[in-house]
Amino acid sequence: MKAIIFDLDGTLVDSMGYWRRVSRDFMKTKGIDIEDEVQHKMTTMSLVTSLKYLKEYYKLEESFDELYEGFSKTVIDFYSNKVKLKDNALEILNYFKEKKKKIVIGTSTAKHFAEIVINKYGIDKYIEGLYTADSVGHIKGEEKFFTTIADALGEKKEDIYLIDDSYLALRTAKRAGLETVGMYDENSKDKWQIVVDENKYSITNLIELKNI
Questions:
Q1: Chain-centre distance of CA 193, in angstroms?
Q2: Least confident of 17-26, 75-84, 85-94, 153-162
Q3: Which GO terms describe its molecular function (predicted)?
Q4: Residues 51 and 121: beta-carbon distance below 8 Å
Q5: CB 46 within 8 A of CB 132
Q6: Chain centroid to CA 206: how far?
Q7: Rounded CA gap, 137 and 40, in Å?
Q8: Residue 28: what pLDDT?
């Protein structure tokens, strides 16, 4: 292990319940119940991509700009005032930083949202870079998302570990040649057995990374 890509939501930050609720609640105002598979698919997308996907999939009449403005206000409030870190998040980041590992964040969350929580909790002190689906130009469901980050890190893909709660992101990273570690998140527990079965490593608390 020479470098680590940490996912943000559901891995370092306890926020996936919020993302599920806000999406579902938002769509319920339009008389729509989001299917579970649609919800899981959206975990690999940026906010821009997911809103475009919802607009097209459910044939929403609102413009994209109207949808984005409504979502943005609630997301900014959440990251600024309500979001909490996962247990031992800062401790494990410090542990790997002291071991001279390259640490970056790879997330589907837009940069200006992610930076709110990263700066709020001092995560920026431990990482060397923030890569988002928008900045990379590919969603986490595409291998290019991970190969682009690997190229930027300058390390062999097999020496780069992805820590992520999304079974879809983990699958993609494995196809791209990275080592993967599945992170348990209560909000995707229905897919946990898939994560355990498909990945060499799986953890229920970030502190367990010390044993890998």
A1: 19
A2: 17-26
A3: hydrolase activity
A4: no
A5: yes
A6: 15
A7: 20
A8: 82
User: What tens digit of pLDDT does each residue of 156-211 get?
Assistant: 999 999 999 999 999 999 999 999 999 999 988 999 999 999 999 999 999 999 99
Which residues does residue 107 pair with via DSSP β-bridges, in sequence order? 132
Nearest to 192 by CA among 69, 45, 40: 40
The enclosing H or E element of 112 equals helix 111-120
d(CA 50, CA 43): 8
HSE, CB side, 13 Å, CA atoms: give it for residue 6: 29
Distance CA 120, CA 89 (A): 13
Q: Which two tokens stand for residue 208?
A: 């367990």
Tokens 């980041």 belong to which residue? 93
A 10 A CB-CB count for 41 gives 17
| pTM of the predicted protein model | 0.83
- Secondary structure (3-state) at 184: coil
pLDDT, one tens digit per residue, over 32-73 is: 999 888 888 887 787 788 889 999 999 988 899 998 887 788
Nearest to 206 by CA among 89, 83, 85, 84: 89
- The sign of the torsion formed by the CA atoms of 32, 73, 6, 13 equals negative
**Pairing, β 84-85 against β 13-14:** antiparallel
11's tokens = 């891995």
